[in-house]
Amino acid sequence: MNFKSLKIFSMMSCSHDFAFPRSAPDGSYSQVCRLCGAEYEYDWQEMRRKKRIVDRVVKQEI
Q1: What is the pLDDT of residues 10-60, one digit of tens each?
Q2: SS3 4
Q3: Using CA atoms, how far apart are residues 16 and 49, in angstroms rounded to an integer?
Q4: Which letter does DSSP use for residue 55 in this model?
Q5: How far apart are CA 50 and CA 36, in angstroms?
Q6: Fewer CB near the terminus (10 Å): N or C of the chain?
Q7: Could you tell me if 19 and 32 are in contact, meaning their C-beta atoms sit under 8 angstroms apart?
Q8: Rounded CA separation 37/16 (Å)
């Protein structure tokens, strides 16, 4: 089994243990699973996770 297949399988079978919501520089919030690294949008007003974030571009200031 190659690494990509293993990663996909582990994300599908993960029981998700989420860390406390964190804020991004743009003002949005997200939660990350401590086990598999899956990232989800977080609505701070409703206090709940929303859809999964597949690709997020992180810009770093130098």
Answers
A1: 556 788 899 999 998 899 999 999 988 899 999 999 999 999 998 765 555
A2: helix
A3: 12
A4: -
A5: 17
A6: C
A7: yes
A8: 9
Q: How far apart are CA 45 and CA 26, in angstroms?
A: 16
Distances from the Cα of 26 to the Cα of 22, 23, 30, 51, angstroms: 12, 8, 11, 18
> Based on C-alpha coordinates, what's the Rg of the chain?
13
Report how far residue 1's alpha carbon sits from residue 49's, in angstroms, rounded to the nearest whole number: 31
Do 51 and 28 contact (CB within 8 A), yes or no?
Answer: no
3-state secondary structure 7-51: HHHHHHCCCCCECCCEECCCCCEEEEECCCCCEEEEECCCCEEEE
Give bridge partners of residue 52 from the DSSP assignment. Answer: 40
